[in-house]
Amino acid sequence: MLSAALAVGFVVAADAAEIGRECLLSTKTTSLALALKDGSWNVLHYGDRVAGFSDAAALSWNRWTGGNYVQRAPSAYAVYGESAQRGYSFNKWGGLQATHADGCPTTVLVGVKAETVEDAPGAKHVALTMKDASYPFFVVQHFRALETCDVIETWVELRNEEDGAVRLGRMDSFAMGFPLLANAFSFQYVTGQWASEAQLRETPVERGQTVSIGSRSGVRDAWDNNASFMLSVGEAASETSGRVFGGVLCWSGSWGISVQRDQCDFVEVRAGADTSAGAYVLDSGKSIALPKFAFTWSSSGKGQISRNIHRWAREWQMPAGGKLRPVLLNSWEGSYFSFTEKVLHDMMDGVKEMGGELFVLDDGWFGTGKYARDDVHRDKVGLGDWVVNPEKLPNGLVGLSDEAKARGLKFGFWVEPEMVNTNSWLYEAHPDWVIRAKNRPVKVGRGGSQTVLDFSNPAVRENIYGQLDALYSKVPDLSYIKWDANADFYNIGSTYLDAQHQANLPFDYTVGLYDLLAKLRAKYPQVDIQACSSGGGHVDYGFLRYADEFWGSDDSDARERVFIQWGESQFYPACAIAAHVTDVPNHQTKRTTPLKYRFDVAMSARLGFELHPKNMDTNEVAFAKKCVADYKRIRPTVQQGDLYRLVSPYGSSHAALMYANEGATHAVVFLWGLVRGNWSDYVPPIRLDGICGEKTYRVREINVRDGVKHTLADGKRLSGESLKAMGLPVRLRGDYDSAVFELTAE
């Protein structure tokens, strides 16, 4: 079925204008030129903006160029099967492999029509309808060019009008061929594991090689790899130079991304939902919308790719990307499961004193009777029973909300709706509602009892929606939900789907999740959502279509977070990255870092706390109040500004980045020491890419503690031209020293 939640951005053509055999989509600095040739849509150009279609056609690749003999067409959407174009041989790859109702495993797409679709201001939207040459099987490819952020969105709708089911062995959202762009390519991505997410990696793509990343968790699908990449075209690009193609797949389920380079330097990029569980069965008369893929281009390095995607996320993808995020305290590391109402009230008092704006109750508040979540049973019971434990919270969630409101704080709480414990009332009533393979025992994870609910089943989604709806409605001032998910698919199987459709489960589960999120978001638009999944498992733009931010990692150690947030910043804006000041020794790494260092790292994203304020002394509270006040002043630039990564933590003893607002009238520079190899490892002046050379700036260091400053330029009025030419001279005094500088145009 075509999911309304999944097909966000899909617009039915209204008063559609034919665009014929030529299509040129341009943004502020980029162009995509497509041409219908021998019945198939070809890519003539994608990259820097061109003056017009005729130029793109005259300068585009052809087989004569370079003397090579590419056997594949540069398709806008490559499929497995024979090419409709004369002279091109059988395509063994492609992003779509469809086995038709009569068993034929190949597809030959022929263009039927091309339409301009009415859309929002600033967007140009075209739909290319294609049909198999021999079967009533239709593919509609959408391209939506977004002018100001230089991003093009694409997605595909498949429609089966054959007499029987079509089996989709591959069903990528993006499968575009690029002929002879360069003689060298390198692929950058982020990978990791629990508590070490978003580690930056880059590898060359050699001739004859396919480089691929992916995830098959089913739930925590951004944990080991993130559904995003940058492809350097030519020599490996830097932050500020080189040609780069970048893209993000908007999908929370299992996925795959690959870049294939053949012996003639033809490159095909593919991204889409994973089908390793088996071919997806698309029944006769049914349609399916594949996930959105957003891509962009830069001829000035990787930093511009990030800024384009960040702007796209804030303006077009996230539900409230332009809204400033609050300073909050989350209760988890401050109390874990051991709390009373009095403990939580004390936390509220503490965060209010430091200038916080929101209190969030984490795990441990729900379940009743033998399945009550408490400090004894901890994470072994209660998931699926979304009712308040009256022994823990005699006054309920609304009582906590009222206490927060009395202190001038907003209120939120933690849930894990995708999961259920086998030790729960829900599981007792519906053991068939979990993901489980037929004739095999139920597999469990965390706590020896956790498993995943089958969200392909509408009855399961309706039950969870009903429970959450009842819960939300009892807290009139509810402001925030932390949505967690701490399990994978431990096997594949659904008691809801019949035998023929079992392999549909991974895709249909994610569609069901989006349906639930969309329904809750529609009824409670004022409730912000944090995407969490064992830390960084839900860091993806599919979930962020419904969420306002994400928890990037359960590792809250400040030094580790420099690397984690550096990796996340490649594709995600600061307003989406939740970063918390926590206690020391750190609960994950046992490392002790200064309070200033912890603030200076967390303030480069969405600042929050995860500790009990009673454990802070008077001087620490006073410093925290000052930092929060400073953060509120710089928050618009940090959360909504353009990011410039100045010094990478990889291969250096320090790291630095800067945010600049629109017009570069305000900028904030963050500098963090890591571990110095020796005393002579000094920090060179920091070159401030992103400020305006024609402006004059007042430089001021903030978050100063004990009077220790890190630049002699503090308080001085300096030209942007000089700051760009000479850099900002700085000094760090140890492994975990840090500094924050504010530049204001005068």
Blueprint (SSEs and pairs):
Elements: E1 17-18, E2 22-26, E3 30-37, E4 40-48, H1 53-59, E5 96-99, E6 109-117, E7 123-132, E8 137-146, E9 151-160, E10 166-178, E11 185-191, E12 199-204, E13 209-215, E14 228-233, E15 243-250, E16 255-261, E17 267-273, E18 280-282, E19 287-289, E20 292-298, H2 302-317, E21 328-330, H3 332-335, H4 341-353, E22 358-361, H5 396-406, E23 410-415, E24 419-421, H6 425-429, E25 450-452, H7 458-473, E26 478-483, H8 505-523, E27 528-531, E28 549-551, H9 558-568, E29 577-582, H10 595-602, E30 606-610, H11 618-640, E31 642-647, E32 654-660, E33 666-673, E34 696-702, E35 717-719, H12 720-726, E36 738-745
- Indicate the radius of gyration in whole angstroms: 26 Å
Per CATH, what is the topology of the largest domain? Answer: Beta-galactosidase, Chain A, domain 5
The first-level CATH class of the largest domain is given as Mainly Beta
* DSSP strand count: 36
Q: Report low-confidence residues grouped into runs of 5 or more.
A: 1-17
CATH architecture of the largest domain: Distorted Sandwich
Largest sheet: 11 strands, antiparallel
What sort of overall outline do the alpha carbons produce when their principal axes are compared?
A: globular
Structural class: alpha+beta
Number of helices: 12
Structural domain tally: 3
What is the residue-averaged pLDDT? Answer: 94
- Helical content class: 10-25%
**How far is it from the N-terminal to the C-terminal residue, by CA?**
57 Å
CATH homologous superfamily of the largest domain, by name? alpha-galactosidase from lactobacil brevis
Strand content: 25-35%
